[in-house]
Each structure stands twice: as C-alpha cells, then as structure tokens.
Amino acid sequence: MVLTALRGALGFLTRLPVGGDESNWDAFRRAPVAFPLVGYVVGALAALPFLLPLPISTAAALYLVTLYLVTGVTHADGLADLGDAAVVHGDADRRLSVLKDSQTGVGGLLAFGLTLVVLALGAFGLAGAGGRVGLTAAVAIALAAEVGAKAGMATLVCLGAPAHEGLGSALVGENSPSGLLAVAVACLPVVALAPVTGGPAVVAALCCGPVVALLVRSWGRARLGGVSGDLLGATNELARAAAVHVGVVTWTLS
Fold first, then answer.
1. How far apart are the first and last CA of the chain?
2. Collapsing DSSP states into helix, strand and coil, what is residue 17?
3. CA 144, CA 248: separation in Å to the nearest integer?
4. By three-state DSSP, how is residue 40 classified?
5. Which residues contact 100 (CB under 8 A, 6 or more apart)?
6. CA distance 125 to 111
C-alpha cells in the first residue's frame, strides 16, 4: 500500500519517470505519509551538489537547478497563484476566481520572485558561505528542509477543508488529522540523524514545513474558505525557502 502510494506521489509531486496508473493516484491521495517519503527522494537528489568539490555559488546554483528539474514548476505556479489571490480585493469567490486564472499578475510574480531569491540566498549560505556550515550539516539541512516542506503539505491535506472542487479537494477531502501520526513517524529518520549531522539546525529546518502549513491554512480559511491545490504548492515553496534559512541560522548560532 505504501509503495503504491509512494509511486503515485512521485508521479504527482515530481517529474521523475516512475510511471503509475489510477490505482497509484488513488493510493497516494489516501496516504499523506507519502508526502514526506517523496521529500527524502527530492531532498537527497537536491543535496548532491553540496557533496561535490565546487565553488559555493556553483553548488548553490546546482541545488536550485536540481530542485526544479526534479519537481517541475507546478508548486511554483501554486505560489504565484497565491500571490495574485493575496493582493486582489474582494470576497472569497473573487479570490478563488483569481486562483483559477491561468495568467500570472504582479502579485504572483512578486511572490514567486521573492521566494526564489530567498531560497537562492539560503542555498548560498547552505553551501558554506564563510565556512560556517559543514558538509554533513549542509546535506542534512537540505534533506530536512525538503522532508519538512512535504510534511507541511501533508499537514494541510490532513487538517484543511476543501475550498472548492478540484485537484486539491481530491487530496484534502480524503484525509483526516489521524493521518498526521504516520507523517510524524516518517519524519523520525531526519530527527535521528540530527545529533550526528546538524543538531538543532536539522530539527529546526524540519519543523518549518508544518509551521508554514498552519499559517497558510489560517490564511486560506479566512480568505478562501478552505484549502486549494494552489495552497498546497505554495506551502511547499514557502516552507522550503524558510527552512533553508532557519537551518543555516540555527547552525551558525549553535
């Protein structure tokens, strides 16, 4: 069941050629634990540049390139849609119509642009600016950031209510808070690695995902009446960017 759900999750959340069919999708949308499992795959691939003897700027750039080659732009599109909906004036119906609009406005460009800059600067710090971040810690923080971001998506799926019918409701409408227990268990390997890698920095990066998810859920309930697929993608992007910075800062101060 978990392997079937993982295959469906990889097919939905990444561009990896895993194949899959309707049964994989059905298993995935009923198994939120698949989200952090995908985080391990994406995080491990994205962290590879930090293992290579590269200049800091090159390693940071390759980290970003790898992320978007593996995951595509679907989540980034959700962030852009959230930016457009956040700046529009009107009620929930007006904001939902903006979310469904395929054109990206100034709010969307600003939201995605700022998040990308924040992530790029965090990646630069993660790659070891000034020699403050060790090699093992950089990889562990990158992995924790991705697992945490996916755990944040799972948090929205388990705690949110659908804002409207669509792809998001196929996930949000199928799960309950009890699913977060398996999600927490799936995150334990990252916590177990913390004492021998980045210590508190790894745990701090991991926790960013659920925290961001709760903030996005609160905004969605107040402005949209629930959670949409765009909010899931936006949570992934925002949580990752925040987690990388929080991890680097925590490592530097500890």
1. 41
2. coil
3. 12
4. helix
5. none
6. 21
State the DSSP H helix or E strand holding residue 103, giving kind and residue range, or none if neither.
none
Name the 3-class secondary structure at 220. helix
Q: Is the pLDDT score of 132 beyond 50? A: no
Q: 253: which 2 tokens?
A: 């101060």
Which of the residue ranges 25-39, 100-114, 163-177 would you say has the lowest mean pLDDT?
163-177
**DSSP class of 76:** H
Q: Where does the pLDDT of residue 134 fall: very low under 50, low under 70, confident under 90, or very high at 90 and above?
A: low
* 152 or 135: which leads in pLDDT: 152
Nearest to 78 by CA among 37, 111, 36: 111
Higher-confidence residue: 37 or 128? 37
Q: Are 212 and 242 within 8 A, CB to CB?
A: yes
Residue 198 DSSP class: T
Reported residue count of the chain is 254
What is the C-alpha separation between 98 and 74, in angstroms, rounded? 17
DSSP summary character for residue 160: -
Task: Tell me the average pLDDT of the chain.
Answer: 89
- pLDDT greater than 90 at residue 194: no
